[in-house]
Design brief:
about 150 residues, 2 domains, single chain
Length: about 150
């Protein structure tokens, strides 16, 4: 399977061929953010880097959409929602509740975590497995509850 950078570039080409202007515009934003990361860090972006970029873009779109809706600008809010939908197409499959619980249990067990002092180790172990697949704030809350905070 192609890496995420390649998938985004191919999707952009397909959208251009289909003359889907809105989709092309959204994909160009994604390509630009990936390219910005590569130029800033002077290296080729990995899939993890791309997922981090996509996560940041999704958060920005969600915040902008809620602000536009609050201001009564439904047209701009719908544009942000459309862009978020295009971005989500490239995100990994989200974890379901059972998978997330299993990962948390495994991380707690593997790190012999017994108290809140071990939370950092558990979160570090989980970061790679859940990046882009679950909200880290929600994961942190679950780990806190599991460790008896």
């Amino acid at each position: 399977m192609a890496d995420l950078r390649t998938r985004v570039a191919e999707a952009t080409t397909l959208a251009m061929k289909a003359r889907d202007k809105a989709r092309v515009a959204a994909l160009r934003l994604v390509n630009a953010d990936i390219k910005r990361l590569e130029v800033d860090e002077r290296r080729t972006a990995t899939d993890d880097d791309v997922i981090a970029v996509l996560n940041r873009m999704l958060k920005q779109r969600a915040e902008a959409e809620s602000q536009y809706r609050g201001a009564g600008r439904v047209d701009l809010a719908e544009q942000e929602a459309f862009e978020a939908g295009v971005i989500r197409e490239f995100m990994p499959q989200p974890l379901n509740e059972a998978e997330l619980e299993a990962l948390i249990e495994a991380a707690v067990r593997d790190n012999a975590a017994t108290s809140m002092r071990d939370m950092g180790k558990v979160m570090a172990a989980l970061k790679g497995a859940v990046a882009g697949r679950a909200d880290m704030a929600a994961v942190s809350a679950r780990v806190k509850a599991r460790l008896g905070a």
